[in-house]
Structure formats: structure tokens, C-alpha cells
Amino acid sequence: MDVNGADVLEINQACARLVALYCRYVDDGDHAALIDLWTEDAVWTSIAGPMTGHGEIARYLASKPATVSRHLCGNLLLDVIDSDNAVGSCDFIALIGTGDPDRPVIQKAGRYEDRYRRTANGWKFAARVMRLAEL
């Protein structure tokens, strides 16, 4: 690894912020900001399957019904590969509803497995895989 301790701390902070912004933008329904968290060639594997690149991610987000959600991530573990690449994982809980008190809230839990890449515009997701937990 060609990075020093200060670089590792900076990379860890940037990637942890990326994870937090993902949750915030998903919950706020801010699709443009959410898409900007990904590299142009990123692969996002969700319950809908794999999506590659900004175009596929944007189409997926546009197809989803409006919901009220809160995503909570914890147990974030990051490993710096080199000055431009890192990998990590975090556990998540997602509470998803329609805003209608008579309809049940969907509860999901699992783990995100991520690859991060430094770009000219900062750190981005190069890949994110959602793995649901068997609850």
C-alpha cells in the first residue's frame, strides 16, 4: 500500500461520508445527488439486480414508487487498497413506508459491500452490492 497514516484517515473519512450521503439522498428522494455518488461505470446491485452506469441507475430510481424511508448504516469497515481505491462493508436497516398509516412499513436489514474509487471529483462508489439478511 503506497499511502501513509494520514492518507488512510482521510480516505476513511471520505468513504464514511459517502456511505452516509447515500442514506441521506435515498431517504430524501434526491436522485440527482444520489447518482452523483457513483462513478460513471459503477455497478449497483440491489434487490432489482445489477445496474451499470449512471443511465441504468437513473432509470431504476425513476421507476420506483414514492416512499418514505429511513436507512441506517453501522458497523462500517473500510480497507484502503491504495491511494485511489478502497473496499468496505456496512450493515444496514431500512424502514420503508408509503406515508399511509394503514399500510405496513417494510423492514429490511442486510449488508452493503462496497468498492470506492477516487475520481477528479472526489471519492465515489465504483460498486455496491446489497445482501439482505435472513431475518
Automatic annotation (TrEMBL):
Residues 9-128 form the SnoaL-like domain. It comes from the Bacteria. InterPro entries: NTF2-like_dom_sf, SnoaL-like. CDD domains: NTF2_like. It holds the Pfam family SnoaL_4. This is Nuclear transport factor 2 family protein. It comes from Allosphingosinicella ginsenosidimutans.
